[in-house]
Amino acid sequence: MKRxxxxxxxxxxxxxxxxxxxxxxxxxxxxxxxVHDTVYIYIHDNxxxxxxxxDEEDDEEEDEEFSEGIAIPIDTLNTTDRYTKVVLxxxxxxxxxxxxxxxxxxxxxxxxxxxxxVHSYRDxxxxxxxxEVTLRLVDSVHRFCIPHPGPVTSQFKFRWHRPHRGVDIGxxxxxxxxxxxxxxxxxxxxxxxxxxxxxxxxxxxANGLETYYGHLSxxxxxxxxxxxxxxxxxxxxxxxxxxxxHLHFETRYMGQSFDPERIFDLENGMLRDExxxxxxxxxxxxxxxxxxxxxxLRASQKAPxxxxxxxxxxxxxxxxKGDTLSRIAKKHGTTIKKICQLNGIRQxxxxxxxxxLRVK
Length: 360
Fold this sequence. Notes:
Blueprint: H1 2-26, E1 30-35, E2 38-43, H2 52-68, E3 73-78, E4 84-89, E5 94-98, E6 132-136, E7 152-154, E8 157-159, E9 162-164, E10 167-170, E11 176-178, E12 183-189, E13 199-204, E14 209-216, E15 218-219, E16 226-227, E17 232-235, E18 246-253, E19 256-258, E20 264-265, E21 270-271, E22 275-279, H3 293-300, E23 316-318, H4 325-331, H5 336-343, E24 356-358
Antiparallel strand pairs: 1-2, 3-4, 4-5, 6-22, 7-10, 8-9, 10-18, 11-17, 12-13, 12-16, 13-14, 14-18, 15-17, 18-19, 20-21, 23-24
């Protein structure tokens, strides 16, 4: 009996010692936090139990310490790559930042790639082109931009007895001019090499179009640069054959020009459609936005002297239902003022169906 009692006492003492050791172990409270996906764990060696309120206060203090260590960007620097920048931080560190670069195929710079002349498709004639071609202008990746948000001061038409193969957009010298679509700069040439265009940029686009930007005062890009739609590529001016500051803007396909207003609603700063069907008869100087295909075909079949090449040839038009001076002027590539001068009428004159007006 004495032996049994002694064994029980020994077991009780051993159990007490083991429980005290475990109590000391569990009194060491663990805390953890995460920085940049790395988990750090701290273990307290004190023998006092920390309550939840104290634990939350410690966490707030640690969060403040780490927020104070976050680097703040203060400046960016350019590199040799226009789409890679260096970002500087307030703690003296820096890193490279890669901007989104347009996906432009290398093949754009293979065919008829001439950086020394404005027009590079001189060996391709109008008869070599298809009757029509379907062009996608924008998609989920490639967007568009109006070259400059100014008024159209002159349209695609015969002007001063010579073809004006683009539109003029009003601006002030020094105003920014923007790339219409993503592309590669083919030409960045000064007035001495371009004549009437003045300082001109030509940008080639993936769908086969080229856009021209004339009379610039300064280039912001150079030949071979990849540009994004909406990127500032030059500053407006009045270089070359110009009577005042404006942007001369052209759209061409395989070297042949057509009315840019067939693509852009320049007045409202919009694209007319995402897909554009370019027809062969659009390349005629008398074919412009607002005409039906039938009207465009008739205009493209006019004899040369009817296209403004002869000062002595008179052209008349018979007023139809719904006609206005503005519509008639646009249809014949002239102005309301000119029609009024030729016919001795005022701009507010009411037109009569069947009335004949001289338009040229």
